[in-house]
Design brief:
CATH superfamily of the largest domain: SCP2 sterol-binding domain
Strand order of the largest sheet: 5-4-3-6-7
Mean pLDDT: 92
CATH class of the largest domain: Alpha Beta
Number of domains: 2
Number of helices: 13
Shape: globular
CATH architecture of the largest domain: 2-Layer Sandwich
Oligomer: single chain
Distance between the termini: 47 Å
Helix content: 40-55%
Number of strands: 7
CATH topology of the largest domain: Nonspecific Lipid-transfer Protein, Chain A
Largest sheet: 5 strands, mixed
Order of helices and strands: HHHHHHEEHHHHEEEEHHEH
């Protein structure tokens, strides 16, 4: 038994598993490795190529990304498939069970925004921004609002629909949108979460907006950040 434990330690498997029947412990066995949750996040709006995932996670190395994708695939959360011609590219995609992890990301994300150390002005990916809208939308402010808003962020396009107090967002063309934003995710987040006026960002050339200005003005108020948690008094 001691020899087995020593072998496990040398291969690193003991560091990756808690050997605990608690569901939370097993969840950490599945997605607790560094970068694993962020890889899941980047796949929440559909399949991506390896190079696209890495581009949206600039701090990850190719080797670590390969390891995380292999681990998530072995756990049944991710599958590889090849797109048909003319693309003929290999992509990674979440399984149905993998998509069921989104509420975990939402709860963690919303909880962590209360941290005094959270800085919403830091870089974030386009997918992260779109998912934040599904997470942070205030039901009271969404009530009665109906509209379609397009986003052009780098080479990616997204269409967000607000209807019946809910937000639905996905990748795709923005034709038919009532309003649209174009620019880096960080700049758009500045308008939504940082309180920077849209007009100021336009004047700086940081973003472009088009369409229903009233809808745009209302949209950036739909996602209030929760109050910061108090720090214990020393």
């Amino acid at each position: 038994m001691q020899l087995q434990k020593l072998t496990d330690s040398e291969t690193g498997s003991s560091r990756r598993r808690y050997d605990d029947a608690c569901g939370t412990a097993h969840a950490l066995d599945l997605i607790g490795e560094r970068w694993a949750l962020l890889v899941l996040r980047e796949l929440m709006l559909g399949p991506k190529r390896f190079s696209d995932i890495r581009a949206d996670l600039p701090g990850i190395s190719a080797n670590v990304l390969t390891q995380r994708l292999e681990g998530l695939e072995a756990a049944g959360l991710v599958v590889r498939r090849r797109l048909p011609p003319p693309a003929s590219a290999q992509v990674y995609e979440l399984t149905q069970w993998g998509y069921e992890a989104e509420p975990i990301l939402q709860v963690m994300g919303k909880w962590a925004t209360r941290s005094p150390g959270h800085d919403p002005s830091m870089p974030l990916s386009a997918t992260s921004l779109m998912l934040s809208f599904r997470t942070m939308g205030d039901p009271e402010r969404l009530r009665g609002l109906d509209g379609r808003i397009g986003f052009l962020i780098g080479d990616e396009s997204f269409l967000l629909r607000i209807a019946e107090g809910r937000i639905v967002v996905g990748r795709g063309p923005i034709a038919g949108a009532d309003a649209a934003f174009a620019g880096p995710a960080t700049a758009i987040a500045g308008a939504v979460y940082g309180g920077v006026p849209v007009e100021a960002l336009e004047a700086e050339g940081a973003i472009e907006v088009a369409g229903d200005r009233e809808l745009i003005a209302r949209f950036v108020t739909l996602f209030p950040l929760p109050p910061k948690a108090p720090m214990p008094q020393s």
